[in-house]
Amino acid sequence: MADSIKVAVLGAGTVGSQVVRLLAEQSGDLALRVGAPLEVIGVAVRDLNRPRPGIAAELLTTDAHALVAAADIVIEVM
């Protein structure tokens, strides 16, 4: 399989957190469909101190510009 496809998610509210969850839960099926694993490299948020259940703290960032620059795919749900 090819190198991973880097995915950035902008927003971690109700919709954003569910997108991150689905990307993790469906990772095998999605990798087969696109020919490479999808890797969530970060989730841009406004407030790092707000609880984000289901999203690893190390994925959270307030620097959306840097996140977008490093990603192959950007999912905006703000």
Describe this structure in words.
- With 78 residues, the chain is of the alpha/beta class.
- Helices cover 35% and strands 24% of the residues.
- A four-stranded parallel beta sheet has the order 3-2-1-4, sandwiched between helices.
- It is globular.
- It starts with a strand and ends with a strand.
Strand order in the sheet with the most strands: 3-2-1-4
Pick out the low-confidence regions: none
How helix-rich are the residues, as a percent range?
Answer: 25-40%
Shape: globular
Whole-angstrom Rg: 12 Å
- Global mean pLDDT: 95
Q: Hey, roughly how much beta strand do the residues contain?
A: 15-25%
- In total, how many beta strands? 4
How many helices? The count is 3
Q: Encode the helix/strand succession as letters.
A: EHHEEHE
Q: Tell me the distance between the termini.
A: 32 Å
For the sheet with most strands, the description reads: 4 strands, parallel
Structural class: alpha/beta
Annotation keywords:
alpha/beta; 35% helix; 78 residues; 4-stranded parallel sheet
Briefly summarize what is shown.
With 78 residues, the protein is α/β, with parallel strands linked by helices. It is built from three helices and four strands.
